[in-house]
Structures are given as structure tokens and as C-alpha cells.
Amino acid sequence: MKIEQIYTGCLAQGAYYIESNGEVAIIDPLRETQQYVDKANKEDAKIKYIFETHFHADFVSGHVDLAKKTGAIIVFGPEAETGYDAHIAADQETFKIGAITIKVLHTPGHTLESSTFLLIDENGENHAIFSGDTLFLGDVGRPDLAIKSNLTKEDLAGMLYDSLRNKIMPLADNIIVYPAHGAGSACGKNLSKDTVGLLGEQKKTNYALRADMTKEEFVEEVLDGIPPPPQYFAKNAMMNKSGYDNFESVLKRGNTGLTAEDFEAIANQEGALVLDVRPQEEFVKEHIPNSIFIGINGGFAPWVGALITDLKQPILLVTPEGREEETVTRLSRVGYDNTLGYLKGGIHAWKSAGKDIETIESISAEVFSNRFKNDSVSTLDVRKDGEYKSEHLDSDTVRHFALDFINDNMSALDKTKTYHVHCAGGYRSVIAASILKARGFNVIDIAGGFAAIKKTDLPITNFICPSTL
To answer: Could you give the CA distance from residue 219 to residue 156 in angstroms, rounded to a whole number?
Structure first.
């Protein structure tokens, strides 16, 4: 028996390759499926089943493409309804992969169809669970993502409580837990950086598995502090439920080099968004007018999903050389399939063709400090709510809203003012500045963000927990 976790850091997501006696099961595959085919071919094995723990909301799974390539059967748990051929398993149904068995444990709560897959080894012993978003290390899945459900998040949280206690916690402590996500995922609140653990350890340390916890306490704690889900979550879940375009076709179309003239013509004719994914330091120095920055080296796919509201939006790319295919791939992982090509030769080719460029003024925290003391400057803090509440500049001239919700707060800003924009370290502020500049606002980026501002002598407001007073 072979179990391999294939972890993708930018999505904080774990897919799984399980092999026994020449037969393979894949659990929660990524959009680019050739890697699984190649792995099975190398082992002279055949992919027999594709197990989906639920309809994922934070990424587009590769189950549909992989089934078409290999003839493998897609398996969902009870309550799933799909727009393609799939086997909807019954609770406790088993599937043979070589000498091992996968048993379906229906564990609704994160979503109605959510299921945990119990691996029974060659000796008939329970070996591991692939828990999807039902159980993470340190946390459990958020119960507010069910597709078109007439149930409330409180109802689903109650289901999750029952699933954990009736299906997961009775299992032995030595069971290995293979979750779908780790730290960085928006599918939970306090996920561990570890990506593999033991169930016994979770029973001791995971707040949601406390033995003395009532259902009412569980519901309250699970729902406490959950931010609204990113806008693309429901759309990705529906793609996973209904089907999607072939990934290879999406990649071929998007990974096409364009001259500056063709790039500009397509941008004008198709109403394409110009997405610049270079490092922020390069973007602020020079970029195509009205282009938007979301750097490939940061939390790229989740920020694209949070800020570009239309999955069908035509997109043209400005990328670091050699990272064109990677960018198209990472866009497709969150459902953005309408990439029309990239600027061949990058910004240098654009300038060589005599095209206009723009810049964003970026100043140091020291320069900002002087301006802040001597002038009535308008400051915009785009960190998350928790970051802002923890500590922020102590001034009535500071406005705050999280970058996630910039599109909802645009009307509250004044185009006659110049906003000095900061985040924690500089990545998000350049995203915000690029969006605001493209909408006609006057912006100045504060390089280094709040981390640099704190090193100046500007006044900072710190949150003090009432229990410490």
C-alpha cells in the first residue's frame, strides 16, 4: 500500500494518491490532472476511483477531467447531485483498491454531501481517514458553504457536531488523519500548519472535539468569528457540481504569447482585464495603464477569487518571464478559465512598442511619518479587521476596510483626496492601490506597510483584552 499526499501551498490543499496492487484511488485532485496519470503510469498502475470529499468551494477539482482521461469512477457521498456521471455512494459503502478498502462515512455539516473516507488496510485494520473539510488539524470546516440549502449555518453546525461524535471520534486514536487543507485556507479559522496527524492528538487538542462539549457550545464556538466567505466560493462549488471546461484547452488558450499590438487590441476589443502578476516593486515602477496588480508570489489565487467578481472575465497577463503557464494554471484552479494570452516580452516589449506606461508613487514609512505629522494626510488601512483591531495608527484621518471588500467600499472614498495606502507588509496595499488608481483615485503606497510604520514614532493604538484590565 502506498499513500502520498500531494500538497499545494498556494491553496493550502492536500490531494491524495493511494495505490495497492496496481490499482489507484485519487482523493480531491487538483485541476491539472496529468500529474496523477503520469504517476500511475510510472508505477504501472491504473486509476480506478476518484473520491471527492465534497463539492469544494475554494478550488476547482480535477475529477471531471481525470475521469474522462482514465475511465475512473467519480465517487461522492450521500446527498450529492452532479451534472455528470458519478457514483453517489451510500453511507458505509465500501470500495476495493487492490488489497485495501475505502469505506464511506457520511459526515454532513461542512456541506450536506461531505463525507470522510476510511482506509482499511490489507490486514483489515482501520488505518487512516481522509477527512476533507469535516476535520482539520486544529479545527473543523466552516458550516456556511452548502449549495442552495434551505438549512441555516446553525443547522449545519449541529449536523457537524453529530458527524464528528458519531462517525469520527469513536475511531481509534492511532488512526492517521489526512485533511483536505492546512493553515492558510479560508475553509476554517485556526488550521494547523501540520498537514498529517493522529486522531488521538486531535481528540486532545482540537477545540471542536472536546468530549464534554454540548451541541449548543459547539455551534456557538464553530460560528464565532467566521468572516463572510469569499465571493468565488459558491461559484467554484457550482463548477465542481455541474462540470467545467477541459483544463488542457484552458491552458492552451491562456498560454499564448501576444505582441504589444495584439495585446492592446484584444484588451480593447474584448474588454479584457490586464492582470499584472510581477513583484510589487516592479509594478509600482512601471505598468500598463489601468492594469491591476495581484502578484504571483503572494496569496495569488485566493486574492484573484476575492477581487475579480466575474469568473468569465476575459484576462490578459503580464507575468515574470517563464511563469506564464504557472499563472494560467493557478487562475484555472479557482475557476478563472477565460485567460486570452500574455504579453510576450513583458513590460519591456510594451515600452519598446512605444506604448504608454504609468507608475504608482511609493514612499518609505519615514517619509510617510513626516507627512503624517506635518500635514492632514488621508490614510487607508486595507488589512483584515482582526489586524486593524489589534493595532493601528491612532488618528481620525485613518480609514479602514479590508482589501477583500474594496469593491463594496469604493463609494465611500473621495476622488478629490490623495490616499496613502498601507497593509501589513506591502503586498495587499499595492493590490489596493492598483484597483483604486484604475478607478480614478489618487493613491500613494507606503512601502513595507504597517510593519515599517511601527518602527517610526507615529502614535499606535493597541487593543487591550478586557480580561487583562
So the answer is: 9
Give Cα separations from 327 to 68, 161, 340, 389 (angstroms). 24, 39, 12, 34
175 to each of 38, 99, 131, how far by Cα in Å? 29, 19, 11
Give the number of other Cβ atoms within 10 Å of residue 301's Cβ. Answer: 24
- Contact between 245 and 339 under an 8 Å Cβ cutoff? The reply is no
346 three-state secondary structure:
helix
Q: What are the Cα distances from residue 70, in Å, to 180, 341, 458, 461?
A: 23, 29, 61, 58
- 3-state SS assignment for residue 164: helix
Provide the Cα torsion 172, 175, 180, 183; round to 10°. Answer: 90
Burial tier of 161 (Cβ tally within 10 Å: 0-12, 13-18, 19+): buried
C-alpha to C-alpha distances, 183 to 12, 14, 187, 383, 422, nearest whole angstrom: 6, 11, 10, 18, 24
Sequence-separated contacts (24+) of 21-26 with Cβ below 8 Å = 21/98, 21/99, 22/46, 22/98, 23/48, 23/96, 23/97, 23/98, 24/48, 24/97, 25/49, 25/50, 25/51, 25/95, 25/97, 25/102, 26/50, 26/51, 26/66, 26/72
- pLDDT at position 464, please? 47
Of 96, 192, 204, 68, nearest to 136 by C-alpha is 192
Average predicted confidence (pLDDT) for the chain: 95
Query: Cell numbers 500538497 correspond to what residue?
Result: 7
Determine contact, residues 180/131, Cβ cutoff 8 Å. yes
**What is residue 401's DSSP assignment?**
-
Q: Tell me, what's the pLDDT at 228?
A: 86
Q: Where are the alpha helices (DSSP H) in 274-426?
A: 280-285, 300-307, 324-333, 346-352, 365-374, 385-390, 406-409
Q: What gap in Å lies between CA 39 and CA 47, rounded to an integer?
A: 10
Each residue's pLDDT tens digit, 327-354: 999 999 999 999 999 999 999 999 999 9
